[in-house]
Amino acid sequence: MQLPRALEREFNPWLAAEARFNEAATLLGLDEGLQKVLKSPAMEMTVHIPVQMDDGRLEVFTGYRVQHSLARGPAKGGIRFAPDVTLDEVRALSSWMTWKCAVVNIPFGGGKGGVICDPAILSQSELERITRRYTAELIDVIGPERDVPAPDMNTNDQTMAWIMDTYSMHKRTTVTAVVTGKPLNLGGSRGRVEATGRGCMIVTLQALRKFHIEPSQAKVVVQGFGNVGGKAARLMHKAGMKIIAVIEFDGAVYNANGIDPDALEKHRRETGSITHFPGAESIDKNEAMFLPCDVLVPAAKENVIDSRNAHKLQARIICEGANGPTTAEADKILNEKGIFVIPDILANAGGVTVSYFEWVQDRQGYFWNEQLVNGRLEEIMVNSFKDVVDYAERHSVHNRTAAYMLALDRVAFAIKLRGIYA
Ligand code: NAD
Fold it and tell me: Cys bridge to 254: 245, 313, 336, 385, which one at CB 3.0-4.6 A?
């Protein structure tokens, strides 16, 4: 579907990233030269990779890897496989990773990668050959000290195992720390799978506490019942909150007394959908996001809250589980409405935080139990929430602006300390 020109601009990830950057940089009074450095990705690589298909044909796929910043440590960020991946998108997402890592103060810069391909029509062996050849092309720019990829859209722990193996074959030694999000028995971390959802739950609890809302009184609406939204719903339910509605791409369910996410997951496993769940009534998926609630967790995809619908939201708190669920235009409306937004670069940073733990464990060759992982994650999320909210209050700005200002300031400080090599 063709979007009107104004919405096309509103939904463009690079322009969205730029809008947030410009606002924060101006408020910080950042030197113009430094702004140029912070805006420009440190490295962009495009590779055209020949791959033999199962039917014997030779196909060429295009892949990207962008390292936005290496100022605070190795680049960190996922690799996505999708038919519509663009360099603009990868560039924007890599800068998002820089700010996200800086907000939670972990020693990484930002990176992102992508391969233009349609996993839905590729066999496992074709996917493996694409992954391995893409890795081989990137061999000189990735590595535990340089750039540490992770799973993203349509890639998973198996993809990471292939990358780790290909990299290790080239280096003639097993290098588990080259990627995160690996299977547990190949150097993965306990707690990684639910880390993003857990992070969302932790910062939501902090926000509820700030507004003196008892978790047992908190009504939550979750959009997207996948890795982030499904785990967040389960952990929020466990923490006492009431999940009153769950929204998926094919329908939504509602129960004012609360939905049990485990039962809903079981129902979806058995029927293939969340709809017709016996523990709730089915409601219009296009209206469910606008239900009165204490917490809305958009955890499906980008640009779901935009200039056309933001005014309809009735949530007190928004915890952005997805990346970029709110457009910059919608930000203004949410601010006017006084909605307390926990911005994506803070709210969903639990995943990259436990990725950091995975990298540390691989390098130590010593693996932590789940309790230790979860405890350390909680400490980082609680401190980061406090850093952002205190900063917002101190500088009279909204949370998203505060998160960006804090992140830019940290990265700019690192660049200034290191100086410009000439
Ligand atoms: P996922 O594919 O596991 O889950 C997404 C869910 O949203 C799916 O169940 C899908 O059916 C549903 N969905 C898709 N379109 C929808 C729509 N229009 N309305 C309602 N539901 C819809 O993906 P995920 O890993 O949970 O990622 C979700 C978002 O969180 C993405 O923006 C991703 O970039 C971001 N994110 C993920 C992680 C992570 O660790 N997985 C970390 C940080 C950010």
Answer: 245
